[in-house]
C-alpha cells in the first residue's frame, strides 16, 4: 500500500482543503432563459468542468479529484413543483442506479464515440477532454511524465494497457457524478478490465505486488469525493463493484484480478468500492475464504450474490439469458443489467408488518386463521394497486452521459422492497399459535395490549416477544408465514405493466425503511413495541432469541427466493473476536457456502465490536475509520446519524 497516498486522502483528507470552487446558483438563470432540461444539464456540466482546478498529488497514479464541492440544481423549487404536478419523481429526479457500458468507451476512446453522438453528447465529450487536457498540462508542470503519457492517450483514444484503462474509468465515473447522476455503479469490473490486466501481466509489466499497488491507488480514487455524493447517509453512494460469476457459456469469471481486488479492499479498509461477490453451488470453498478475509477486516462486505437463484429469477421476469447471466448490482443489492438495463430497482416499498397488523386487528374475531391470511393477501394486492397507481408517468432529468454509456434501454422494470418480513411472519405465527390453535391468548386482550404498547401486559409481552415462534430459529410455523407473504407479494405483481412498459419486481430488502416504516407503526402481535425498528433487510427481528447462525440460514432459505429477485440480503452480525481464529474463519466461510447451497439469494456479514461502537459514540475522532454495514452499503460509524448507529448496535451478534 502507498502509505503517503492513503494518509493524504483517507486519514488526513488534505484534498478537502482544495474544495474552493463554485459555479453559483444556475437554476434561476436557466429558468429565466427557459432552457430545456437537456440544455441545462449540458451547460451545467460544461460549467462544472470549466471550474474544476486540476491538482495532482506527487505519489498518485490515478488522477482527478473534485475542487468544486457543490453541484447546484438545474431547476428552481417552483419549477420542480410544476414538474411534480404532471410526473412521478423518484428520489431527487436525476438518473441513478444504472450500470453503464464503460467497456466500450474505454476500448475505443471518446473521439470515436463523438462521431456517433448527438449535439449534446458532443458537447459533453468536449468538456471531458478539455478538463483532462488541463490535467495533462498540470502533470507536465509537475514533472509527472507518466501521467502525461496516460492522459495523452486517454480519454481521446482507447486504452492500451491496464493503467490507462483504470484512468479512463476514473474519468468516466468522475464525469457521471459531475453531470449530476448518482449511485453510479461499477459493474462487473473484473470482467471488462481483465483483458488489460492479463495483457500487462503476461508482458511482465507488473508483478502481483506492483499490480496490487496500482489497484489500491485506483480504489482510493473512489474515496476522494464520496462525501460529496448524494445518499441517505454518508457511505450510501452506490459505488458497487461486482466480482466473479459466470459468463453466458457457464465459465467462472473469478480470476487473479478478482483476487487482487479482494486483497486491495482488505488492505485499505476503505468503504469504497463496495465489493459484491457472485457465487454459486459450484464456487470452491477457497473463494469463500477470500471473501471472509474481508469480513474479518470489518468492512461489511463482500455481499454474496447467488447466481443459481438470481439468474433463474431474472429469466422468470423476462430477461434474456445472455443479459441475466451478465447481471451486476445497483447501489445496494438489486440486480441490474449492464449496458442495456434502465430499471428503477428501488422505486417503492411495502410495509409487511403494517399489512399484517391491519389484517389481525380487522379479523381478530374470525372463525379461522385462514381468514386472516386471506386478509393479508387482499391487503398486499390492494397495496400493490396503490403503488401501481401512484408511481405513474415517471420522469427523470435527461442525462447525456448515460445516453453515451447505455447501449439500449431494453429493460424498464420497477423494483419494490418488501420490508420487515420477520416481524410480519412472527406476528402471524404468534396469532395462529396462541389465539387460534391453543386459545391461550384472549383476542380482545391482545388488541388492548397492543393499543397500550404492552405497558399493562408484561406476561403477554414476554410470551409474544420471547416464547412465540420466530423466523430465524428454524421454526417451520414462522418460516411458513414468511413464505406465504413473499409468494403473495410476488404474485401480486404478475401481469402488471409499469408506466415505462416494464414489469414489476418483488424484493426482500428494506433500505432505510426498517426505520422509516417502523417508526409510525404501533405495537404488533409479535411483541414488538410501538416504533421499534424492524430487522435489516431479510433478517430476523432485533429481539429474536437466536444463538446459532445455522438456524437463521435454515429459516431464511426456505422461501422460493427466485420469486423475490429484486433482492435484499440476509444480514448476519458476528462478534469480531471470532475471526481471531483461523478455524472460525473457515467455519464462517463454510456457513456462507451452506447458505448458497441451500438456495439463499443474497448474504452479507458484519464483524462488529459493540464496545468499540459505544466508545465511538463518546469519542468519534478516535474511531474515524470504524466501518459498519448499514443496509446495502458500508459506512464509517461516526459519520452516521445516531438512529442508524443505535440500530447497528442493537442487532443480534452471532458466534460460530
How does this structure look, described?
By secondary structure, the protein is an alpha/beta fold. It has three domains: 1-181, no CATH class; 185-333 and 575-656, no CATH class; 344-568, no CATH class. Helices cover 47% and strands 9% of the residues. It is built from 28 helices and 13 strands. A six-stranded mixed β-sheet has the order 1-2-3-10-9-13. A hairpin with a 4-residue loop joins strand 11 (627-629) and strand 12. Helix 9 (162-179) packs parallel to helix 12, helix 14 packs across helix 26 (582-597) and helix 17 (352-363) crosses helix 18. It is globular and about 80 Å long. The relative contact order is 0.10. The model has no long low-confidence stretch (mean pLDDT 93).
Strand order, main sheet: write it out. Answer: 1-2-3-10-9-13
Largest sheet: 6 strands, mixed
Number of domains: 3
Please count the beta strands (DSSP E, at least 2 residues each): 13
Shape: globular
Distance N terminus to C terminus? 32 Å
Task: Compute the number of helices.
Answer: 28
Output the structural class.
Answer: alpha/beta
Report strand %.
5-15%
* Residues in helices, as a percent range: 40-55%
Mean pLDDT: 93
Unreliable sequence segments: none
If you compute it from the alpha carbons, what radius of gyration comes out, rounded to the nearest whole angstrom?
25 Å
